[in-house]
């Protein structure tokens, strides 16, 4: 049985989130935008793709977002 492809999120509101995909995506997205909507202003967080040899890839909160 093949191992699932694991995507982790580092930093920001998605910190610690882990998604499992059935297979390695052919063309993973280079950035992920997370929009937080609530009763106040819209908050946008941008995550950039980086590869992690151990488990797949991870999206790290963009440095200028910290």
Describe it for me?
This protein has one domain (5-65). The chain is built from no helices and five strands. It has strands at 5-10, 18-21, 31-36, 43-52, 56-61. Strands 2-1-5-4-3 form a five-stranded mixed β-sheet, with no helix packed on it. The chain is elongated, with a radius of gyration of 13 Å.
- Helical/strand content category: mainly beta
Q: Gyration radius, to the nearest Å?
A: 13 Å
Question: How many strands?
Answer: 5
Helix content: under 10%
End-to-end Cα distance, whole Å, is: 39 Å
Average pLDDT across residues? Answer: 85
Number of domains: 1
Q: Strand share of the residues?
A: over 45%
Shape: elongated
User: Which stretches are poorly predicted, pLDDT < 50 over at least 5 residues?
Assistant: none
Biggest sheet layout: 5 strands, mixed
SSE blueprint:
Blueprint: E1 5-10, E2 18-21, E3 31-36, E4 43-52, E5 56-61
Parallel strand pairs: 1-5
Antiparallel strand pairs: 1-2, 3-4, 4-5
Please outline what is shown here.
With 66 residues, the chain is an all-beta fold.
Task: Sum up the structure in keywords.
66 residues, 5-stranded mixed β-sheet, 5 strands
């Amino acid at each position: 049985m093949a191992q699932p492809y694991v995507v982790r999120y580092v930093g920001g509101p998605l910190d610690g989130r882990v998604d499992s995909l059935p297979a390695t995506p052919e063309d993973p997205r280079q950035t992920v935008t997370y929009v937080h909507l609530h009763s106040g202003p819209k908050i946008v967080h941008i995550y950039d793709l980086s590869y992690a040899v151990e488990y797949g890839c991870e999206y790290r909160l963009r440095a200028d977002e910290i």
